[in-house]
Design goal:
The complex is a heterodimer. Chain A is mostly helical. Helices cover 73% and strands 0% of the residues of chain A. Chain A has two domains: 63 residues, no CATH class; 208 residues, Orthogonal Bundle (MetI-like fold), CATH 1.10.3720. Chain B contains 14 helices and no strands. Classes of the chains: A mainly alpha, B mainly alpha. Chains A and B meet through helix 1, helix 2, helix 6, helix 7 and helix 8 of A and helix 1, helix 2, helix 4, helix 5 and helix 6 of B.
């Protein structure tokens, strides 16, 4: 199956269409054969690694569908037992705190995304279009902000939230994550590339900056808003260190913090543990399947790294 | 603060009415920046300042206020404490273990995936999806795989004929390797995507020309792909180093710094000092030191990027 596809690809791209190391244009037969061999080897090597990469997830999935009794016996028992059961999922969805964790993750992620995208794009609009004194300073401050690693600020942020009594609220997870400086840069770069004709026409018609931003800039920015929203969402949803220290109430915990407590509290219920990890990962897998392109472009474009 | 001192003179010196557009542009500028700016000042700038201040005080979590002035005592403590140097070493060790495989494997995967046009979605799925999953889910999966005597990794080693495999996460010499393997599996997708994007920017005519000249595939990769991807490689390496210096999640989830302190990293030391020992001052000093290390690497990245841009221009 795989080698057939590879062969087909090799032939089709004989004119040098494949990009990394395309087949030579010459009619020289020896070259063609070596190209074909290389394509087949590529496929085989990739396939081996891809399977290797899928094993951990599949293993968690298989364990989550096996009974707790079997899972506690070890790897061989899990491989041998194919009486699949949804028991662990039923236990978690009925009993545990997982719905609270989902709720916390959804609320904190959605509100952070809204604030970051809205405020970030406003700041970017000002930096891209408005001439005002101190603009350079603001821009330099933003560049400085990119260099600040938020994880390192966990202790002072904790103290700040503690001082104003926001610990153990959703706000303690939301507010510190709003100033994602990278968002301003991504938006600014996009706005810089937009033609100014529409705005100038609107300005002549007497529209203010706010109207221009809202009715012209924002509608034109849908792709970048989409990409930034998803990238921010994934980042906030997955953040462990901040909610880990600012939330201690199990009812308020986000998915990552909740999952971090599972290891200790579920003890030997290994299938339940793996089922909770699958349930925690599931929303993001679904998100990826829907927005594959946007996510990949967003991650590549913003150079975002946890 | 700065906002007002800078905005006021321009508003005052320009007579209203006559130059209406620049005036409103100036005010609009600050109004548009303000909402984000407030968050920026409150949750990035102020914490940095606060961190520097508390690093010079015996601040604790149990009493309000800064506490007694400590001078450089916190820094002296950290710089003479074996735990600090061991945490710094483990952070560097983690960086050494993860960066080369993450860069080289991602490059190889991307070159191969870029060549096979069909089924690329499958490889993206396999390599990239782990990257967007929560570290906590990854931690549960790999902790389970590394379970001593009954886990999958143990079973695999037994199958290979290893008589009595050592527990990966429970052996001081192996625990960091376990964390590194988990991390490589988790984050390779990021570099993979960056390389794939870089590869697609290379014009195929270059390869065609090389092929006409009789360059072998291997030769094309060595003399075209690798040099033309050097910018991506620099970016990937530096981003990877910065991310590795901030390692916390995987260690916290897989070993909690153990066995003993054999995998304790800097951010782990910072949080333990602050949230288990309640010693904010000492933790801040450690944070400042980590912050400086990361800042140096980040600045290095900026410099390298500038140089590369200039060379290309």
């Amino acid at each position: 199956m795989s080698s057939e596809t590879a062969e087909g690809t090799g032939r089709r791209h004989n004119d040098g269409v494949s990009i990394a190391a395309p087949a030579p244009r010459t009619a020289d037969n020896g070259g063609k054969n070596s190209e074909l061999t290389f394509t087949i080897i590529s496929w085989a090597v990739l396939l081996v690694f891809a399977i290797l990469w899928l094993i951990p997830s599949l293993w968690a999935l298989k364990t989550s569908l096996t009974s707790n009794a079997t899972s506690s016996l070890g790897a061989e028992a899990i491989l041998a037992d194919w009486n699949l059961t949804l028991g662990s999922y039923a236990t978690l969805l009925k009993g545990g705190d997982i719905w609270n964790w989902y709720l916390a993750s959804v609320i904190t992620s959605v509100i952070t995304v809204l604030l970051t995208v809205f405020f970030g794009s406003m700041a970017a609009y000002a930096l891209s279009r408005l001439r005002f004194r101190g603009r350079r300073l603001v821009f330099l401050l933003m560049i400085g902000g990119i260099m600040i690693p938020p994880q390192v600020l966990i202790v002072p942020v904790f103290q700040e939230l503690n001082a104003v009594g926001l610990l153990n609220t959703y706000w303690s997870v939301i507010l510190p994550q709003v100033p994602a400086v990278i968002a301003v840069f991504v938006f600014k770069q996009f706005f810089d590339g937009l033609p100014k004709d529409f705005e100038e026409a609107a300005r002549i018609d007497g529209a203010g900056f706010w109207t221009t931003y809202r009715t012209i800039i924002l509608p034109l920015s849908r792709p970048v808003i989409g990409a930034m929203s998803i990238v921010t969402f994934v980042g906030v949803w997955n953040n462990l260190i901040l909610p880990l220290f600012v939330l201690s109430n199990p009812k308020l915990m986000t998915i990552p913090v909740g999952l971090a407590t599972v290891q200790g509290s579920y003890g030997q219920r290994l299938s339940d543990i793996q089922a909770s990890s699958i349930l925690g990962a599931l929303p993001l897998v679904i998100l990826f399947l829907i927005f594959q392109r946007r996510i990949v472009e967003g991650v590549a474009g913003s150079g975002l790294k946890g | 603060m700065t906002a007002q001192t800078l905005a006021t003179p321009s508003a005052a010196t320009v007579p209203a009415g006559r130059a209406k557009t620049p005036l409103s542009s100036a005010r609009a500028g600050w109004l548009f920046v303000a909402p984000f700016g407030v968050f920026y000042l409150l949750f990035l700038v102020w914490p940095v300042i606060y961190m520097f201040i508390t690093s010079f005080f015996h601040t604790t979590l149990v009493k309000p206020g800064f506490g007694n002035f400590a001078g450089f005592a916190n820094y002296r403590e950290m710089l003479t404490k074996p735990e600090f140097w061991s945490a710094l070493w483990h952070t560097i060790q983690f960086t050494i273990y993860t960066v080369p495989p993450l860069v080289i494997l991602a490059f190889v995967f991307a070159v191969l995936a870029n060549r096979v046009r069909r089924g690329q979605w499958f490889f993206r799925l396999a390599f990239f999806v782990p990257f967007i999953l929560p570290s906590a889910a990854i931690g549960l999966i790999w902790f389970f795989i590394f379970t001593p005597s009954t886990g999958l990794w143990n079973g695999f080693q037994t199958w290979l004929g290893v008589a009595d495999p050592a527990p990966v996460l429970g052996t001081p010499a192996l625990a960091m390797i376990g964390i590194a393997i988990t991390t490589i599996w988790w984050t390779i997708g990021f570099n993979f995507i960056l390389y794939l994007a870089g590869l697609q920017d290379i014009p195929r005519e270059i390869y065609e020309a090389a092929a006409v000249d009789g360059a072998s595939t291997w030769r094309q990769i060595r003399s075209i792909t690798i040099p033309l991807l050097s910018r991506t490689t620099t970016l990937v390496v530096l981003l990877q180093i910065i991310a590795s210096l901030k390692i916390f999640d995987q260690v916290y989830l897989l070993t909690a710094g153990g066995p003993g302190i054999s995998t304790q990293v800097l951010l782990g030391l910072v949080t333990t000092t602050a949230f288990s020992d309640y010693r904010v001052g000492a933790a801040s000093a450690a944070s400042v030191l980590l912050f400086i290390v990361i800042l140096i690497v980040t600045l290095l990245r900026q410099v390298v990027e500038r140089v590369q841009q200039r060379r290309e221009a």
